[in-house]
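Let's practice the habit of predicting before peeking. Look at the sequence and jot down your guess about where helices and strands might fall. Then scroll down.
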Amino acid sequence: MGRRRAGKTSMHAIIFANYPAKETMGIGFTIDVNESKFKFMGKFVLNLWDCGGQERLMKHYFSSQRETIFKNVEVLIYVFDISSDESKEDMNDYKQAIANLAIYSKNAFVFPLIHKMDKIPEHERAAAFEQKKAEILEASASVTVKEVFATSIWDETLYKAWSQIVQLLIPNLDTFKESLKQLSHICDCDEIVVFEKLTFLVIAYHDNRPKKDILRYERISNIIKQFKLSCGKLGTDIEQMTVKNSKFTVIIKGFTDNTYIMMVVSDPKVEKSAIELNIDSATSYFKTHNRGSEMDNLLFQWKKE
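Done guessing? Here is the structure:
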């Protein structure tokens, strides 16, 4: 949700419809509520409502349609255009959205996205973000704001925001992360990351050598997805990628039916074929111990035998 031209439909197209950022310029305005269902991680379905932001529509949302729009909401993603000259009206709409959410879905989580940060001069971005964030939090006392994100379609910040939003909706994610931790120790790898296959959003990761770059995996996600889109133009898809030098070996490979896995190994003694064998064995193990759905497979507790 958000006012017109905030960038809602563009970010939806980039994440879920595989649009390159430069091709979103030709996308028209959403003139109603655009509902779409996206199959994610096997049987898990995301029901996304892209609400048009024209003034007349916003009035309908907060009056005659408010129960339809705000009832049974799990997550509200409200998009602010940081460069908009309608910031006052934008904040008024947000306050009305929060008021209705508190009535009809008081347990919902809220993720405000301060979008189009690329339009702010780089040396002013941090201050502009903190100022806007403070205004948003002040208006959000009656609901639970999980996190406020600064985003742009031109970099990995959009992937960071949506990865964290989706992770919140995946049941038993902590168990899955523990499984990755155990798998990383079994395979003696430095890092292990699982990406959702279609969106390439980061589902979970484990890093035995924590890095200072907090956007590291989202940046990789963005790069690989752009490569995936290029492959799609040639009628093919990514099966496996390998990057190897004197310091590390990285393999990105199809994992389960709906995920890719990335392993990073710095030990020069570990051969590429050994890493591939570990991934294939892990995939086989998940499928062998099928307990009803892919999510069940992902939550399987690894143990060394």
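How did you do? The radius of gyration is 21 Å.
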